[in-house]
Structure to design on (615 residues):
């Protein structure tokens, strides 16, 4: 699915003119972004181009100096990542943020544990472990990660790709508006990297749009519906894998080629 | 036909033949299998050591395995076990508390003096003493979370502070049990339970262990304690308020140490400022022997109870075998080295 270019589709999230400066260093300067429903938008750019800062502003980890963010057309202000999360934006950080000693179900519900109904839950604060386990199994299998040997397995005994799958499944399970993935295939080998890409497609196909930061151009070109190129703190271009080649994209990133006119 | 199409075609064939997702099979050697089992059940190792020790000491001296002697072992380890319970919570968060014994002894002196010097009724003196211990723990927690000082340094400092305050308040005098209200020494009273003689102190200790086993395994707080100790950044990113978790752990430990101090009064039938110098390290020893990792995130209170019992069984068993006290300490020290090496080996589980 390519993004609609008619003005009648409201972007799921839209950033307009975001600016962030650290002293004399400008991280983003009137940074823009639109994410439409049912798409995977990749944000690429050289180091210091502003992609991390732009994404951090969307996930609540950075408060911009100026500019607006609209979620489903309504303006929002995030003061911390928890507010963004509460608004339905889930972020999978590069470090994955999983507790290695806890098992898969514990990690899926980490920070959002479910208690047993009734007095057992309210007075004794007892966790509904059985329900969380079955829910974890359900979420994992819905995303096609069904054959992990044991849902009670400690996350540290999983491979890098499996851990990434748990982190993505957690975001997909709780995200209601969109999911942000920061370098999801960075530490993975070819096979597991491809599996994670399929996972990302499954998340989009199940109704959650995805913003993806990646340095891996082949992966970006493989999985993204649209590709936003950041340069010098601004959006330089929005292309697709069909409109431009990888080397052309790199040229726009580095400034060697002039960016095409923006057709948002 | 652009490169993208080529890639598209390649991807299509790969995803068409979709293998089972993410399956990993290993053929493991026996050593690796043992490593995995111990990794999954950190209690098994210490439990095996305890059982073997009990068997060996019973062979050496048949008096070891009598109901009377086993009751004695339990009574001997009760204070250490109670302190070690608080220590476990702190070590699970990758911290450490060197002031455990100092808080326990100081709390015992405070509650004894509230009752005798200030004439406060027993129940009130007990509550005030427990509150003081809790406050001392909270002080540790405040320094660790708000000032962000390393737990080792913090508790090294507070250990000395509480110890000195202890000497000042007590004037280095021991308060006799007979001068105190009965409630203070009540924990030393024994009751017969099926051939064994258990003290109320031991019963309190066992109930506390049961409660914290529940809290660590069945509540969100417990999961957060493990997550914070395992990877504090990951816990924070997952939305856990790690500062709250850390503060709560040190404060609760303070309360547990104060309860340990109360049990100590019952055990010694007095409140003395000069005892308990070895309790700090003994509480840590029990935790380590029980398989809880000093790096946080691994282990639990069952292991600590077993660890405390191992210390008690070794001390008691070696005594019955006629070994001098100095060699008992040597044996415990050796056990600790073995336990830590084992923990390191278990941690090396490969995926």
């Amino acid at each position: 699915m390519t993004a609609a270019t008619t003005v009648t589709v409201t972007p799921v999230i839209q950033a307009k003119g975001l600016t962030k400066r650290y002293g004399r260093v400008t991280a983003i300067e009137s940074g823009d972004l639109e994410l439409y429903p049912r798409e995977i938008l990749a944000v690429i750019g050289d180091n210091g181009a502003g992609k991390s800062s732009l994404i951090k502003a969307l996930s609540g980890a950075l408060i911009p100096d100026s500019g607006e963010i609209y979620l489903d057309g309504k303006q929002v202000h995030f003061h911390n990542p928890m507010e963004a999360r509460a608004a339905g934006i889930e972020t999978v950080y590069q470090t994955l943020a999983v507790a290695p000693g806890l098992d898969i179900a514990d990690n899926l519900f980490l920070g959002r544990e479910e208690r047993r109904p009734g007095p057992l839950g309210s007075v004794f604060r007892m966790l509904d472990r059985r329900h969380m386990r079955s829910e974890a199994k359900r979420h994992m299998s819905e995303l096609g990660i069904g054959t992990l040997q044991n849902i009670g397995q400690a996350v540290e005994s999983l491979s890098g790709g499996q851990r990434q799958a748990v982190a993505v499944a957690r975001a997909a399970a709780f995200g209601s508006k969109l999911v942000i993935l920061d370098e999801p295939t960075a530490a993975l080998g070819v096979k597991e990297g491809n599996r994670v890409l399929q996972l990302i497609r499954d998340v989009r196909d199940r109704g959650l749009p995805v913003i993806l930061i990646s340095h891996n151009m082949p992966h970006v070109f493989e999985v993204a519906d649209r590709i936003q190129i950041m340069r010098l703190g601004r959006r330089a271009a929005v292309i697709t894998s069909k409109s431009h080649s990888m080397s052309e994209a790199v040229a726009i990133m580095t400034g060697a080629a002039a960016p095409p006119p923006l057709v948002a | 036909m652009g490169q993208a199409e080529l890639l598209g075609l390649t991807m299509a064939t790969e995803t068409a033949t979709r293998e089972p997702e993410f399956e990993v099979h290993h053929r493991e050697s026996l050593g690796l299998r043992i490593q995995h089992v111990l990794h999954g059940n950190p209690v098994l190792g210490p439990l095996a050591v305890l059982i073997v020790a009990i068997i060996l000491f019973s062979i050496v001296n048949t008096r070891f395995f009598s109901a009377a002697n086993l009751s004695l072992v339990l009574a001997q380890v009760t204070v250490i076990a109670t302190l070690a319970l608080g220590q476990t919570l702190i070590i699970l968060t990758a911290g450490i508390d060197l002031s455990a014994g100092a808080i326990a002894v100081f709390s015992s002196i405070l509650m004894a003096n509230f009752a005798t010097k200030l004439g406060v009724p027993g129940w009130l003196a007990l509550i005030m003493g427990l509150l003081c211990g809790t406050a001392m723990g909270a002080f540790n927690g405040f320094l660790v979370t708000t000032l962000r000082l390393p737990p080792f340094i913090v508790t090294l400092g507070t250990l000395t502070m509480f110890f000195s305050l202890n000497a000042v308040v007590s004037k280095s005098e021991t308060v006799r049990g007979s001068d105190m209200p009965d409630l203070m020494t009540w924990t030393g009273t024994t009751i017969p339970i099926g051939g064994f003689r258990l003290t109320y102190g031991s019963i309190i200790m066992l109930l506390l262990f049961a409660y914290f086993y529940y809290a660590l395994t069945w509540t969100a707080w417990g999961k957060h304690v493990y997550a914070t100790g395992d990877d504090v950044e990951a816990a924070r990113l997952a939305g856990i308020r790690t500062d709250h978790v850390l503060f709560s752990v040190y404060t609760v430990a303070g309360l547990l140490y104060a309860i340990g101090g109360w049990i100590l009064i019952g055990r010694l039938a007095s409140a003395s400022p000069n005892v308990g110098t070895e309790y700090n390290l003994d509480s840590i020893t029990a935790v380590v022997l029980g398989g809880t990792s000093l790096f946080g995130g691994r282990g639990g209170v069952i292991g600590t109870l077993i660890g405390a019992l191992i210390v008690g069984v070794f001390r008691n068993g070696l005594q019955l075998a006629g070994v001098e006290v100095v060699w008992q300490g040597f044996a415990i020290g050796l056990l600790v080295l073995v336990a830590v090496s084992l923990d390191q080996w278990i941690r090396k589980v490969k995926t």
Remarks:
- Residues 1-88+179-264 of chain A form a domain with the Rossmann fold fold (CATH 3.40.50.300).
- Chain A has a mean pLDDT of 88.
- Strands of chain A lie at 13-22, 25-35, 40-45, 66-71, 74-76, 89-92, 178-182, 210-213, 226-231, 234-239.
